[in-house]
Structures are given as structure tokens and as C-alpha cells.
């Protein structure tokens, strides 16, 4: 396909898939339950970082997690007593278990006692790579951070593609005219985001010649994003909708 044909395809599929109907079967539906910014940020962080496996199972486990927090995550994070943490015990989704969950809750309470928005945690650095590396460092800066929990927050420092963190940032930063992504955060630019590189996006990107690197790593994610900027330099990750839709719905 020519460059113009690829752009026409991606633009068409972006318009098709970036619609409210996308929300219900996707993990982004969890933060869409809320109207307060902190609730959206917290539920979105959990939904994004736990988004591995079948989407139906992700939604079920996230619903369980939010129920354990009385469906009021910000209030639970800031107001829980030690006894309340018992309701988080034995929660597990794949390899994310209660040890990891308890540290997440501990860190979020420490953080929200000092900041009104989680956006502040992603502003440290001149490049997106630096911002994600610094967020990872901040997240695990508390002295009791379990070593086992580090694998649940990706960082470019380990050459990860950081799929789930990049997806979370897409949700929070993109100002989406169709109401799928939230656009809550205004100090980060959609132009700086990196495309979430999941198996469907990767497969379609390779078929379209948008990705040549063999490894699925940070360099591959930035290579794909650079190609997508050729089609829209101000909002390249909007094409995540097109690539994902082509991959999962159309088996492209």
C-alpha cells in the first residue's frame, strides 16, 4: 500500500472505532463510571496496569477490585483504616496479587496527600522516555516497595514497550472529540504520547510496513509512533484505535 492509501485506511478506521460503542467492552469503561478526576485517575491506573489477558476477565477482576473499595477509590485510598485493608487480601489477577495491591494503595495514599492530580507524577523529564522512567522511580521510591511489584509498572529503562502505561496516558491526555479518551491532563501534549504496542497493534503495524524492528520493545513503540506522526503530528496515538480495531475486529 502507498503512504496515502495507508493514511486513508487509518483515518477511516479511526473514525469508525473511536466511538462511544468502543467503551463498554474495553477496560476504559471502568474509569468511565466516575465523574471526579481523582476517581478517574485511580480506577484508570488500575484498569490500565491490570489490562492483560481476555478483556472480559479484566473487566470482571476490575469490578471486583473496585467493589472492595466500595466503588469509591479516591475516598478509600485517602480514608481507609488498617482494618479496611483486610478486604484487599487474596485479590489476584494473574501475577498481580494482594502484596502488589497493598503497595499500590500505600503509594497512592502517600501521593494524594501531597498532590491533587496524578498528572504531576508524569511531568518530570524533557522526553516521554524520561517521564516514564522518572514515574517508575517515583512510584518505587518508598522504602517498603516490594521488589516483586516492580514488574507491574513498566519502564523504558528495562527496554519495555510500556504498553499499559502508554495506554493509561492516552486515556488521560488525549482530548477526544468522541468522548472515549478523557483529556483530563493538559500539561502533557498528545503529540508527545507513545502508541501502546499490544499484539494486535503490532501485527497490523507490521503488515502495513509501519514497524520493522523485530523486537517488541521501547524502540519498536517509538518507531511506530514516529511513523504515525507522519499522518498526524499533533495526535499520533489516535491511530491506536484504527490499528487495534483492524487487528481485533477485522483480523487484518
UniProtKB/TrEMBL annotation:
Record-linked Pfam families: DUF2400 (PF09674)
A GO term, aspect molecular function: catalytic activity
GO-annotated biological processes: DNA repair
InterPro entries (alphabetical): CHP02757, DNA_glycosylase, HhH_base_excis_C
Source taxon at top rank: Bacteria
Protein name per Swiss-Prot or TrEMBL: TIGR02757 family protein
Organism of origin: Hymenobacter jeollabukensis
Amino acid at each position: 500500500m502507498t503512504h496515502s492509501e495507508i493514511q486513508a485506511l487509518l483515518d477511516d478506521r479511526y473514525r469508525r472505532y473511536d466511538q462511544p460503542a468502543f467503551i463498554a467492552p474495553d477496560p476504559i469503561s471502568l474509569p468511565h463510571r466516575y465523574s471526579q478526576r481523582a476517581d478517574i485517575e485511580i480506577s484508570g491506573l488500575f484498569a490500565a496496569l491490570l489490562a492483560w489477558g481476555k478483556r472480559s476477565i479484566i473487566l470482571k477482576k476490575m469490578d471486583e477490585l473496585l467493589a472492595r473499595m466500595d466503588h469509591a477509590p479516591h475516598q478509600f485510598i485517602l480514608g481507609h483504616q488498617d482494618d479496611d485493608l483486610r478486604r484487599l487480601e487474596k485479590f489476584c489477577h494473574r501475577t498481580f496479587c494482594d502484596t502488589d495491591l497493598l503497595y499500590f494503595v500505600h503509594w497512592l495514599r502517600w501521593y494524594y496527600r501531597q498532590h491533587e492530580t496524578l498528572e504531576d507524577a508524569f511531568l518530570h523529564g524533557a522526553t516521554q522516555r524520561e517521564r516514564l522512567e522518572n514515574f517508575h522511580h517515583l512510584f518505587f521510591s518508598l522504602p517498603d516497595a516490594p521488589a516483586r511489584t516492580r514488574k507491574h509498572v513498566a519502564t523504558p529503562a528495562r527496554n519495555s514497550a510500556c504498553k499499559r502505561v502508554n495506554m493509561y496516558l492516552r486515556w488521560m491526555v488525549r482530548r477526544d472529540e468522541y468522548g472515549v479518551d478523557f483529556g483530563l491532563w493538559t500539561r502533557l501534549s498528545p503529540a508527545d504520547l507513545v502508541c501502546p504496542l499490544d499484539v494486535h497493534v503490532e501485527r497490523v503495524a507490521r503488515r502495513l510496513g509501519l514497524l520493522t524492528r523485530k523486537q517488541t520493545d521501547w524502540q519498536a513503540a517509538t518507531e511506530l509512533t514516529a511513523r504515525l506522526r507522519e499522518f498526524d503530528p499533533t495526535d499520533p496515538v489516535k491511530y491506536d484505535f484504527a490499528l487495534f480495531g483492524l487487528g481485533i475486529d477485522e483480523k487484518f
